Structures are given as structure tokens and as C-alpha cells.
Amino acid sequence: MKVRFFADQCVPNEIVWALRAHGHEVLLLRDHLPICSPDSIVIAKAQELGCILLSLNGDFADIVRYPPNRYAGIVAIQLHNHPEIISDVMAFLASFLEVQSELEFFCGKLFIVEVHRIRIRPY
What we know:
Elements: E1 4-7, H1 13-21, E2 25-28, H2 39-48, E3 52-55, E4 74-77, H3 86-99, H4 103-106, E5 110-113, E6 118-121
Parallel strand pairs: 1-2, 1-3, 3-4, 4-5
Antiparallel strand pairs: 5-6
């Protein structure tokens, strides 16, 4: 089953292409909102579209500002200013999505994706 993502403007095309290559739907922020939209508008649009928010923006990993239980899911990819690890991160995420591809699994959770692990915050 495919997962439906809403990619924040900071998400590199390489990540979008990798997810699409694995059969997932990825909607782009620039197709729905001005690219300088505030974070609150971005996450609200993801909700409106029934998508999991996909971002590199560390603000969305802040569970105080964006409590995961209020959203359909947040995937925060951590590159730590090392774009050369994108392919490794995406391979890891793709294998995770092969096992966990039900939207309900993502609902109310924050997924912090790194090269060798995915941390899940359920609050």
C-alpha cells in the first residue's frame, strides 16, 4: 500500500523522487501554497489534504509546538547538513515503508528519520 505525503518546501527533489519510485504519492507544497507559508499553514494544509507531513524543518520535530497526536503524521528527515546521505536515508525509509504503509500507523506520531534509525514519538 502506498503512503500519501505532503512535502514541505525544504524537501529535496531527490527525496520526492525516491518516495515516488517506491510507489508513494508525494504532493508538493509549491503546488498548493506559497513556498514562504508559515509552518502552521503548511501543517494545516497537510491535514486538509489527508497527508503525512514530510519535512527537513526541525521545527516540526518539536512535540511541544506540534504535538503529534493532533496530526495525521509527521516525518522529519534528519540530514544534519549532509545531503550526501540522502540515498542512504531514503533506502532505510523505503524499507521501513514496505513494512509500515498504513496511514493509521502514522496517525498521531512523529517519525524522526536518520541514516540507521527511525525514532517514533507518539505524543
